[in-house]
Amino acid sequence: MFIVTIAILIFAMLFVFFPFVSDIKARRDKAVSQSRLTEHQNIALFEEQKGLFAAQLASGELDEQQYHDLNLGAEKLLLANTEATTSLSEENFSGGIWLLPCLLIALPIITITTYYHLGAQQDEIIKELIEEQSDNVYSNQRENLARNIRLNDALEKRVKQTPNNIYYWTLLAQFAISKNDFPKANDYFLTALQIDPQDSFLLAQYAESLFLVDQSKFTERVRLAVDKAYEVDPSNSTVLGLKGIEAYSKGKPAIAAKFWRKAQIGLDPDGSIYGGLQIGIEQAESLVLSSSFTESNDSFSKDIKQIVLTVSLHPSIPIKKNQIVFVAAIRPGDSKMPIAAKKISASRLPATIILSDLDSLMPGQNLSAVEEIQVVARLSSTGSATPQAGDWEAIGEPFALEEYSTEYKLIINSKRL
Asked: What order do you get walking across the sheet with 408-412 strand by strand?
């Protein structure tokens, strides 16, 4: 970094040097031209005066002594004017040239002093440490620990100089979380929120860290923090996860499952967060669908309709990372709007999936509202919920819900044309 800084300084000094050089050349040329013109004018005037004196001598107006004295005076005046012109030309040529070395010396001094004063060097050090962390430069655990300590110390020092840097406060909070120091992490997020109270990411992280500080309990202050974050961004996966936990803790597993499904939107289906949410969804649904449970909300009861499916993929079909499988219950012959649907990661197949009224996509359109359905499973080639040519799928035969009494099996083995 030092070499780059020196190179930039040299480049900047060239911008100072060349204008001076070009200006000096222009002034020199102008001064020489002006000096020659003045010299010619002075000589012409001298010759004119000599001619006038000679004419006066010839007419008898001047005697020899007077003529000699006047010529001598004209010569002295010509010499004095020539010297004055040369002196003025040299003065114009050299005027301000002393400023160039002063600027060339002052520029690096001022630049380096300002650079250190503003803390740009500290920012560069932090940037390099973060890049090392991202690139996993150190394979040794002790070296990684030492690097993290240096980064944490640099951040703590820097936020004292730039207390409005939200990014640095967030990094400090994440470091505290990695050390399970949730109270300190919560304090860092709170400090960042004081800078930008409406930042949805900070609100979500603050609510989550506060939840952990309060031993994973929904205290009043946790509830207020979660509600505030949800009000600002109702699509934030962290906030939706917390809302689901809150609903589950209040004995409302169906509502919890809905929040967790929304939280899965946009997450990597192969990721640990998505998987954790899926486990919660399955537990909540099992609780809702169990014969021993009746939720306080009358719209969910033990009589809720459900279908248990086993979905698998034919061994000959290759799958890519993050590929999605969509499973849906539709009206026979109508695949435009599923009655109930779910999506899972293809890497989880084979899997047992429960489709129920909880998975309805539109109010009033659920399994309880139809008599006959058809189940389909589709391995999406694009990740789109809309069927595309090239997708692999399995389409079951239509059957009456009243006659359904066993687990239904689907094997994805047909390519969509």
From this structure: 351-356, 306-313, 408-412
In this prediction the pTM is: 0.58
Dist. CA 73–CA 316, nearest whole Å:
117
Cis peptide before 398 (omega within 30 of 0): no
Residue after which a domain boundary falls, among 117, 149, 181: 117
- List, for residues 62-108, the tens digit of each pLDDT value: 677 766 666 666 566 656 656 555 554 454 545 555 565 666 566 66
Could you say which of 101, 117, 133 is where a domain stops? 117
CB distance 387 to 416 below 8 Å: yes
Domain membership of residue 230 (yes or no) is no
Domain with 386 in it: 306-415
Integer Cα distance of 376 and 396 in angstroms: 6
SS3 of residue 140 by DSSP: coil
- Length, in residues, of the chain: 417
Q: How far apart are CA 363 and CA 321, in angstroms?
A: 34
| Cβ neighbours, 10 Å, residue 155 | 23
